[in-house]
Amino acid sequence: MFRLLLASLFFAQIAFAQGSNPPATSTIAETAAEPVPAGKVDLVEGDVRFFDASRRMRRPKLGDFIYESESIVTGADGEAHLAMEDGGYIGVRPNTRMRIVNYKAEGGADDRSVIGLLQGSFRSVTGWIAKLNARSVEIRTPTATIGVRGTDHEPLVIPEGSAEGEPGTYDRVHIGETEIRTPQGSVSVRPNQAGFVPHRGAARPRVLERVPAFYRPTRNEKRFEGLHERIHRQIEQRRIERVMQVEEKRKKLQQRREQGKAAAQQRQEQRRQQVQEQRREQAQKQRSEHQTKQSEERRHQAEKAGQEREQKRHELAEKQHGRKQAEAERKRKQKEHEEEREHVRRHGGT
Question: What's the topology of domain 2-225?
Answer without folding.
Answer: Jelly Rolls (2.60.120)
